[in-house]
């Protein structure tokens, strides 16, 4: 579905059927003079190139480059935080790592290449990467969506049936593997049917096209392609949205709407608050996903039934905006984690302190973040309550400091701990 990449391919829906890909004519839309340029005035190429002024090309390049950098760095930091800290290795966080891997893949291996293709209507990256790039696109998007569904189901089971055994590490990894396997099956047609074609333009230059050639016809002329695109839209958007809306609605009623009988202990209240924070964070992630991808899918539906829309002079920029919004979903998730989760926020701070991004002063005040350093820093900053006293565990020495109960002199007594 991402292969059509807007009006460059959709424009064929309004032209006559092209039986021979080599015998086609070239139509360009000159954005500056607001006219179509056609060397014969009677044909249209397999893709239609909308030439943008240079300053608009620079603007779009800055927008896409910023999105790719933020998405790649943010998701890699999320992966590092979870894998480098034992206390962060929960079922939900393992799924978040799976989601970050998919988002990092689509931002690094797909967005830059497809954006270049959309901007210049030329594919200079070769035949193999034409197949691989579109395969990665659908693979990553499918894996992201199915991971969000897995998180919502896990939260639903954990909250609605608290007595059930939680997923173990092996079961979680098995579900992640199944997600990638299923996503590979969904994306396999792109690996099979995508191909490249080189066209000679009237001025003697060459233009390379990356497009799917299905068994029953070329792109936009294939009924199989239409069925595949509709199935992809249902499986990766409408079905997940319905599923996650149901699960989080039930979870929300359970956490915010129900009242427990009798007096709750402080531990129970803290447990409920912790679950609420996680659920709120995931609801925000799902809402952002739905908003980012809705215009893209609406565009596909509209152009399928009203193909003349693609002849609108500014349709290239409209599609670029929809495509940027859909792909930018991969950069929002790390921002949401940092904003709504204190542990991830602490991990991001430690990462940038280690990289020196916040200046040398941060490094002197905070220990670097290693395989188990965040775990230790969390314990030293969060005293545990026991029998009315506060126990501060110092990680750099083998001593334990106990603070006197309220009312006693504020003296610290060191007690040796056996090694």
Quick recap of the structure?
This protein has 419 residues and is α+β, with helices and mostly antiparallel strands.
What does this structure look like?
This protein is an alpha+beta fold and 419 residues long. The protein has 2 domains: 334 residues, Rhopdopsin 7-helix transmembrane proteins (Up-down Bundle); 58 residues, no CATH class. The protein has 12 helices and 10 strands. Strands 7-8-9-10 form a 4-stranded antiparallel β-sheet. Strands 2-1-3 form a 3-stranded mixed β-sheet. A hairpin with a 2-residue loop joins β7 and β8. α3 packs antiparallel against α4. The longest helix has 40 residues. It is globular, with a radius of gyration of 27 Å. The chain starts with 6 loop residues before the first helix and ends with a strand. The C terminus is likely disordered. This is Tachykinin-like peptides receptor 99D isoform X1. It is found in: Cell membrane.
Q: SSE layout and pairings?
A:
Elements: H1 7-10, E1 27-30, E2 35-38, E3 49-51, H2 54-84, H3 91-120, H4 127-160, H5 169-193, E4 194-200, E5 206-214, E6 217-218, H6 223-257, H7 266-305, H8 315-327, H9 329-340, H10 342-354, H11 360-365, H12 373-381, E7 384-386, E8 389-393, E9 399-403, E10 412-416
Parallel strand pairs: 1-3
Antiparallel strand pairs: 1-2, 4-5, 5-6, 7-8, 8-9, 9-10
Helix pairs in contact: 2-3, 2-9, 3-4, 3-5, 3-9, 4-5, 4-6, 4-7, 6-7, 7-8, 7-9, 9-10
Domain G-protein coupled receptors family 1 profile: 74-337
Membrane topology: Multi-pass membrane protein
GO molecular function, one term: tachykinin receptor activity
């Amino acid at each position: 579905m991402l292969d059509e990449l807007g009006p460059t391919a959709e424009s064929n829906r309004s032209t006559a059927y092209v039986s021979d890909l080599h015998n086609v004519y070239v139509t360009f839309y000159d954005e500056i003079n607001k006219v179509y340029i056609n060397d014969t005035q009677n044909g249209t190429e397999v893709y239609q190139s909308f030439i943008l002024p240079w300053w608009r090309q620079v603007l779009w390049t800055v927008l896409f480059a910023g999105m790719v950098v933020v998405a790649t760095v943010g998701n890699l930091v999320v992966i590092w935080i979870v894998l480098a800290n034992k206390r962060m290795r929960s079922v939900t966080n393992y799924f978040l790592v799976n989601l970050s891997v998919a988002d990092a893949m689509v931002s690094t291996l797909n967005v830059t290449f497809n954006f270049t293709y959309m901007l210049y209507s030329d594919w200079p990256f070769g035949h193999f990467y034409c197949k691989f790039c579109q395969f990665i696109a659908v693979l990553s998007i499918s894996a992201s969506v199915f991971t969000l569904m897995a998180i919502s189901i896990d939260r639903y089971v954990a909250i609605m049936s608290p007595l059930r055994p939680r997923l173990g590490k092996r079961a979680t990894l098995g579900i992640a593997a199944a997600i990638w396997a299923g996503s590979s099956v969904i994306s396999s047609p792109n690996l099979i049917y995508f191909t490249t074609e080189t066209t000679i333009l009237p001025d003697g230059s060459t233009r390379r096209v990356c497009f799917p050639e299905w068994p029953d016809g070329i792109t936009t002329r294939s009924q199989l392609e239409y069925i595949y695109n509709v199935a992809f839209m249902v499986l990766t958007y409408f079905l997940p949205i319905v599923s996650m809306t149901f699960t989080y609605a039930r979870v929300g009623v359970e956490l915010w709407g129900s009242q427990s009988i009798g007096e709750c202990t402080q531990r129970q209240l803290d447990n409920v608050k912790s679950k609420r924070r996680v659920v709120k964070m995931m609801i925000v992630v799902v809402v952002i996903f739905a908003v980012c991808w809705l215009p893209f899918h609406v565009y596909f539906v509209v152009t399928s039934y009203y193909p003349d829309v693609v002849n609108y002079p500014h349709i290239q920029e409209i599609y670029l905006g929809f495509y940027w919004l859909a792909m930018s979903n991969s950069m929002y998730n790390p921002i949401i984690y940092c904003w709504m989760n204190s542990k991830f926020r602490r991990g991001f701070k430690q990462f940038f302190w280690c990289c020196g991004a916040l200046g040398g002063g941060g490094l002197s005040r905070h220990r670097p973040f290693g395989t188990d350093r965040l775990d230790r820093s969390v314990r030293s900053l969060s005293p545990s309550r026991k029998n009315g006293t506060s126990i501060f565990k110092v990680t750099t020495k083998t001593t334990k400091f106990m603070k006197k109960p309220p009312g006693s002199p504020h003296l610290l007594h060191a007690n040796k701990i056996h090694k």
